[in-house]
Design brief:
CATH class: Mainly Beta
CATH superfamily: Porin
Radius of gyration: 22 Å
Number of domains: 1
InterPro entries: Gram_neg_porin_domain (IPR033900), Porin_dom_sf (IPR023614)
Protein name: Porin-like protein
Strand content: over 45%
Structural class: mainly beta
GO molecular function, one term: porin activity
Order of helices and strands: HEEEEEEEEEEEEEEEE
Strand order of the largest sheet: 1-2-3-4-5-6-7-8-9-10-11-12-13-14-15-16
Pfam families: Porin_4 (PF13609)
Shape: globular
Helix content: under 10%
Number of helices: 1
CATH topology: Porin
Organism: Hydrogenispora ethanolica
Distance between the termini: 50 Å
């Protein structure tokens, strides 16, 4: 009887501990102070990640945008928004994510606008596990928001990549509207040197416009510099953009962002200074 009681108590403690660990999320995020020639603002992102079971993870992200600062490169948001809220089931065959989440796999870090993020209130992503060198992901958006027109009924996209080690090649196909052609973008990355990465994409975007973008990232100790150029940009779009940063510590960094757009009186350069704290 004593052994039975001991077993029950031990089991209860194990279950209680498991529930406590699962219920307590890992909280992380960052706070950014940004300033340009006209305005200043604060951007904040908070992530909550945890497990509801051995194979079931959850993720939630809250974001406050900079309000007065931003263009199409900084993607400003207003107020505090629920950016992501999803569950991911993992097994040996595939990972399945359901909910509201960002899914726009692109090698472009700054000029990432050839395809749209699948960030609807309800979406599904299936990522079969085909080996360490192969990445395949299928995204489906079965329900329309009804409020924001950027969310499309029955939208889907397919991302496939093959990693060679120092290089990779991939393709991203996205279909947002049955009445329009889908976006088809080929992507490639390479690392010719230890501290140099080059990348680019070519194809057609969601508006059936030609896409041809190139970029490079250089790192040295705590310093980094990234630049991207859009060879197909029109006169009203950003043709190039750069980000130069320095990591003071693991939590504190600063970055200078610059980009050029064509205006009525000629090409104008924009600059933005950001201080980022990660927690």
């Amino acid at each position: 009887m004593k052994k039975l009681v001991t077993s029950i108590v031990t089991l209860s403690l194990v279950l209680s501990t498991a529930v406590a660990v699962s219920a307590a999320p890992n909280v992380n995020g960052n706070v950014v102070y940004g300033i340009d020639k006209d305005n200043a603002g604060i951007e904040a992102v908070i992530n909550f990640d945890g497990q509801l079971g051995q194979n079931l993870d959850y993720h939630t992200q809250l974001k406050k945008g900079m309000d007065k600062i931003g263009n199409e490169l900084t993607d400003p948001t207003y107020g505090i928004n629920l950016e992501e809220a999803s569950f991911t089931y993992k097994n040996q065959l595939a990972d399945v994510t359901v909910g509201k989440f960002a899914f726009n796999p692109s090698v472009m870090t700054i000029m990432d606008n050839s395809t749209e993020e699948m960030n609807a209130p309800l979406a599904v992503k299936i990522a079969p596990k085909l080996g360490k060198n192969i990445n395949l992901a299928l995204g489906f958006q079965p329900r329309q928001n009804g409020i924001d027109s950027e969310f499309k009924d029955n939208a889907y996209q397919v991302e496939a990549d093959y990693n060679f080690g120092v290089a990779s090649i991939g393709v991203n196909y996205q279909k947002l509207d049955s009445d329009q052609d889908g976006a088809l973008v080929w992507q490639a990355t390479a690392q010719p040197l230890k501290n140099l990465n080059i990348y680019g994409e070519i194809g057609k975007d969601n508006n059936d416009q030609d896409v041809a973008k190139v970029g490079a990232l250089f790192t040295m100790n705590k310093f980094y510099a990234r630049g991207e150029y859009d060879t197909e940009a029109t006169d009203s779009q950003s043709k190039w953009a750069t980000r130069i940063g320095y990591n003071f510590t693991n939590n504190l960094s600063t970055e200078v962002r610059s980009w050029a757009e064509s205006e009525d009186e000629g090409v104008e350069q924009y600059n933005q200074v950001r201080v980022n704290y990660t927690f």
